[in-house]
Amino acid sequence: MARSMHVRRPATLASLAAELGVSRTTVSNAYNRPDQLSPELRRRVLETARRLGYPGPDPVARSLRTRKAGAVGLLLTENLSYAFRDPAAIGFLEGLALACEDAGTGLLLVPANPEREDVAAVHRAGVDGFVVYSVPDDDPHLAAVLERPVPTVVCDQPDLGNVDRVGIDDQAAMNSLARHLISLGHRRIGVVCMRLARDRNDGYVTPERQRSAHFHVQRSRLAGLADAFTEVGVDWAAVPVVERFDHNIASGAAAAAQVLDRDPQITALICTSDILALGALGEARRRGLNVPHDLTVTGFDGIREAEAAGLTTVRQPVLEKGRAAGKLLLDSAERTRPRSVLLSTELVIGTTAASPRGVVEERWFGP
Amino acid sequence: MARSMHVRRPATLASLAAELGVSRTTVSNAYNRPDQLSPELRRRVLETARRLGYPGPDPVARSLRTRKAGAVGLLLTENLSYAFRDPAAIGFLEGLALACEDAGTGLLLVPANPEREDVAAVHRAGVDGFVVYSVPDDDPHLAAVLERPVPTVVCDQPDLGNVDRVGIDDQAAMNSLARHLISLGHRRIGVVCMRLARDRNDGYVTPERQRSAHFHVQRSRLAGLADAFTEVGVDWAAVPVVERFDHNIASGAAAAAQVLDRDPQITALICTSDILALGALGEARRRGLNVPHDLTVTGFDGIREAEAAGLTTVRQPVLEKGRAAGKLLLDSAERTRPRSVLLSTELVIGTTAASPRGVVEERWFGP
DNA sequence: AATTGGTTCTGAACCGTTACGGTCACTTCA
DNA sequence: TGAAGTGACCGTAACGGTTCAGAACCAATT
Q1: Is there a single domain that holds both residue B220 and residue B175?
Q2: Which of A58, A63, A145, A307 to mutate to test the interface with B (most CBs of B within 10 A)?
Q3: Which PANTHER family is this protein grouped with (chains A, B) (predicted)?
């Protein structure tokens, strides 16, 4: 009943002022600056507001005048809903939400459907700034964000030179994981990676596609691997690298199967994410391969599920990334040059990596 | 460089129009209704816009004029970041995001800190509607939402009579779980529940507090239990019910310990959420109790982790709940009476519930 | 009596759009 | 040839606030 009255409601700050016989300014002050009017008048204003069903100053109008929206926008590469399925993305979101919460700011999830190139949602977003999380560097949504006259922080993106940035050194992190495997004796490896560009390419990846990958994170991780293995004489161009568009355990399993079918002699399967690695583990089990002795499997991210599985991986502080991004954005106080936050990672030695059988034998029976 | 020009940008639709010598309307049409002007003029407008660094119509001003924000607000009972830690909440979010995505609408996470009673964030939110998820029914944020003149959908809330609603029949669902345990022979039970009100009360719950609980979901589940057990002659007032404010596995373990310490003779520990139940399972293991033979443990929600643990529980369609809430809100097309969506639940028979030892013995050696 | 200072309240400008209802020149058609 | 369309563009009036420089008033000080 009370609510149905609200449905079409003419009450506005002006009408309230008229009703009370005071100026709009006074009504505004009643809400925003209680010290600017007598307590008695303020009481009257608020009471009349209640009587007329006036819900207080309209947020949009206020935003227009004050030029603050009280919210930051988040642009994700994937469907909005995907973010809630990927543990790493969830961690990032949690951190970002934490930062927003601290600042009393809202967090607007912008519906940027990667399929249609509909950038309108970016234009429609009434926000004070944007956080962009892991989108391909040629994403039109990203371009649209950069054209908006608001501060922006990118995460897991290449250095754009003129925008705040937070991330990790993916290349170095993956490089150190590679060195670990190399030290264990692995030379014949296969790689399973997430998608490298906006187009779907479920299968083998050419070196050219690796170099020109539009996802900075994936490109860097592959580069880290290539560097390490090239250094010990492995012909990177001959290393099988398979890509999967969809990021889930089934994809990881399918990709692992594809590699193992064509190159059964590999001793290690390096995956660029834990999710893919969990799929690879499943596939190995299905084939009766003993991990790590028949096959080493590694991941990247350090999600909880990976820990439970004992995965050898690289842990990155996903929550911290989100929080850092939020903080950076929210205290964009007259900074001049763009800032860059690089968080550290940690190599997690699990139980899914070991020396390949051949190497062990070498040690025992070698020269 | 190009970006630094944007920092203080005077370019507006009006200034663009002036520069071009056309009316503001025409510039507006260039963006919003290409058919209303000649392609040639439109091209000129857009080009001049680029030259002047005009980023297109200001979203906030547009929202004010059109009276749509292009976003829906989500109000959660907990800290924003908490939502990303609770699997059930994540599922709800995913469903809601799905619905928003379909409609091309943004999703604004409103920072409603449950500690301070700062309702301002609700007032500041520029949204076309609200979804309210599982907040105490006396939450001031909820009251603030209901005063806003926008459509609202509540989820896991009591029927407010004048607002759209989606949920499940918590009472019936828990009742059926209780009957299952009763049929197994359980009569001496303990209960672990989530928090019942806004104040922290880690410990035993009086029947009075149960009845007056401000979290509809918890109140209903307890009522479902009370009904079932009362019916078979159990004195509900004597059943130990312990409450925990924090919702995590450690809390569940601590609560279980509290019950088991005081009432070691109970044969079943009924938890009102899977998370708590997982904690209880851990505590039982720690005490060397064999689940289910020494102790039956049950949960509620049907999260993935529960399935992995073989928990006997009630599965509810959390994703569907989110999606239904979103849909309800987004097609608020001139409905008259409030709508209500009740989703169905499913009793999941796991491996954590069995007949108590006594009952088995009765069967074998009884009269 | 004039000045000062402090409250309390007001007027008008401004925020950047879009909706609405035109005008005007130029076909088209009977 | 006159009436009725049609396409391209424009003027005005909101949309609902906030802000800032005063005005009006009163009490206290010089």
Answers
A1: yes
A2: A63
A3: LACI-RELATED TRANSCRIPTIONAL REPRESSOR (PTHR30146), TRANSCRIPTIONAL REGULATORY PROTEIN (PTHR30146:SF138)
